[in-house]
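Lecture 7, part 2: worked example. A protein chain together with shikimate-3-phosphate.
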Amino acid sequence: MKFTRCNGLHGEVAIPGDKSISHRSVMFGAISKGTTEIHHYLQGADCLSTIACFQKMGVEIENRGDVVLVHGRGLRGLTRPAEALDCGNSGTTTRLISGILAAQDFEVTLTGDASIQKRPMKRIMEPLSLMGASIESVNGNGCAPLRIRGRRLHGISYTSKVASAQVKSAILLAGLYADGETRVTEPYLSRNHSEIMLRYFGADVRTETETSAASGRATAVIRPARELHGNLVEVPGDISSAAFFLCAGLMVPGSEILIRSVGTNPTRAGILEVARAMGGDVTLLNERAGSGEPTADILVRSSSLHGTVIEGAVIPTLIDELPVIAAMACFADGTTVIRDAAELKVKESNRIAVMTENLTAMGADVTETDDGMIIRGGKPLHGAVVDSHLDHRIAMTFAVTGLCAGGETEILGAECVNISYPRFYEDLRKLME
Ligand code: S3P
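Predicted complex, written out as structure tokens:
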């Protein structure tokens, strides 16, 4: 896939469904009573992995494209799969399913692709074991494949070192089955889609945030459930996918893009704050609340940008957008510092190393740090051959960066956008016409 400099992006784009919310709608629907009707389900490879896993556990799921029907089997209705469950490239599938499997009365092996088999799973193995589950890494390296034997669980009060919605959600899901209250404290509030949807499906779950200004700590609390009830879910457009158009619109001179129906949940919308702090012209229109998740259209116009510091509590609210924000910072005047983002090293690729390598290959002035990057903006970039490392967000980031660089940018492994945004290149090219 090749990109060259573009003279402005124009028009409207409708963003595919939110990946995090899509996964949760199938998972929570599967363990609820009744039918869950999901609109605008993301048909990316990750979310299809989630559907396949639950089908293998006896759940009838009709995937009609934009609408998915999940015929729930209740909290205790899953059946033992005949073979290992394949989570593909999806960390969300692996970690959240583990929380459910920890309480089933059968044994399962969870596996996935080469990237999944390198991602840290101790972060869920530890709390789930504390709750009484039997969960082990088959190769003894703290990664998948995982062998999980369901057990009777008890509630715990757990403090997580990382602000991770996947860790929090795995514990909350296990907490549905526990014999008492379960509490998960994280250093900063991570995305709260599980809490919103579990409550919407009838669970007793709440969030306690510390009021002291110095602390961003948040605690999610769940009580065991007798049953959950399936419901209608309207999945908003994924802000993590919208981010590529948002940044492209700001970076490519002469652009104006209307991005339709994007989820703007504050625990996900840090990119709006940072884009504005960098001088970006970003306007929210038609703000509304879908099934508990705020949604808006986003109008973005190319802007003269300046550097900023991105750190602390905002990090979990834009963690998946940091690659494209780092690329955008190359086109801003002055220095942008990203810190407190060591989690980037354990995503689908080591995103600090890969971003530094690829941006440097294009002529940018970027320094890799232990927990982020320092980007000195304003140097003109030139095209290069860049490797996606089969990381969807890296591929999309360099498509956008290639539009602002002299010469040609070639992306290796470009097809991995299939994970979260199969039509990405078509949608981007339409804005170039
Ligand atoms: C996700 C949480 C984040 C994010 C991932 C999706 C989720 O991961 O990076 O793409 O759906 O809960 P962590 O929980 O590991 O931070």
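The chain has twelve helices and 23 strands. The mean pLDDT is 97. Keep this in mind for problem set question 3.
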